[in-house]
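**User:**
Everyone, produce one record:

**Assistant:**
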Amino acid sequence: MTTESQLPAAPVDACRAWVGDRPQPQADAPGRWVLDPCTAQPLSWVGFDHPGSIDDVVARARRAAAPDGPWADSRRARANALHQVAAVLRAHAPELAALQSMENGKTYRESLLDDLPDTADVFDYYAGWTDKVQGETNPVESGALNYTRREPVGVCALVVPWNFPLLLAAWKIAPALAMGNAAVVKPSEFTPLSTLRMLELIDGSGALPDHVLQAVVGGAEVGRALVSHPGVDKVSFTGSTAVGRQILTSVAESNLATVTLELGGNAPLVVLDDVTDLPAVVDRAATVLFAQKGEKCTEPARFVVHRSLHDEFVDGLVARAEALQTGDPFSPGTTQGPQCTEAQFTRIQSLVHQAVDGGAEVVSGGGTDPLHDQTGGWFLQPTVLRNVALSNPVHGIEVFGPVAKVTAFDSDDEALALANGTGQGLAAGVYAGDLARAQRFAHRLDAGQVFVNRYGQYDFAAPFGGFKASGWGKELGSASLDAYTRRKSVWVEL
């Protein structure tokens, strides 16, 4: 494990210099101040693209991804380009990690050691796929030959959230480019700086042809203009269920682009009564919940624990929550930074209050951290709630923060009812001493990915995506290749 003393120094001064060189606001020009989550003070002004400018952006992308052009046609060149992108990101990892922590609030350690390696590696992974996507011949009646081709879809609109600005952008960009498409990325207006710098570095490296990868910046108006543009062939969105529904409406009324949606989580983690090492379960539960200040769609937000283990589980979770050190993301020893936005900071507090009004009990935390009063930053206490019943209005709501909701159960059927009793189905987990029992239970969990006896395992080769209101389609693995290609059936008369 890398220690604090072994971490490369965060180039904060260089990042602030880059931020300071950005254009300042002009009268009536659309844009917003990106705020520092640690102080709620302005960090950098970011001008918004005008919705009308999307026409030019998409036109450039269409030319770059022309079916008879060099990008779509050269698999080896695409592979080499993606390997170059990966190398650029590794070379600038400390800078990108620092920018991301400045605008998002996650610790520098999390940005550098968790996010950046995968951000670079996913480009290498999809570089290896460029020459491995094949068509097939089909057994049609004699007298004809039928085969299929996998072709790029064209222009891809990639809409990225604020919780993982770099990693989730890379999850979308890498497979889109590997399959010969052009990509237009829209980062969140709350965390655009690290993404813009990443694309600036890629552009400066010469790894990609002109306009194969572009960015637009703005809020909902710019997002609607992009996803509904008639020249866009594919939309991939990660974010809230409410915005996902709006995107579907926009696409249905305009371009009928294909859509991949990765939406809300609120995942359950079920602890059955035959678990043999409860402290290890609690350790893992606390690690995956409280990391990245709980702003993760797949985090185990709901803990469904057998009554015989419930009190010990809660006590262990409380001990680990109270051991966390809230503070500046760049300070050694900080294990939880501020929430990313003021709206999320306020929303989390409101949901905790609603949960209590609905019968839940706060056993740890539950309010703002003292640092909030000292700095104005969006710092919250890690919080543990118990007795969050199925009838509690917050049971079915994704808090998306450092808040654990714990509920006891007596039977496996009751546990399943609690685990499956929400509209979301992105992820779920189960722990049991009997592996066969755990697998049987996992098969009954209504979620797109289920973790058995170790919550939170990920690999580029495994599909990522949910059921129910948690989204449409999958990312990563070969699933992304399906999302960023179209299948053409060709008939030949013999």
Q: What stands out?
A: The chain has two domains: 4-263+471-493, 267-459. The chain has 17 helices and 20 strands.
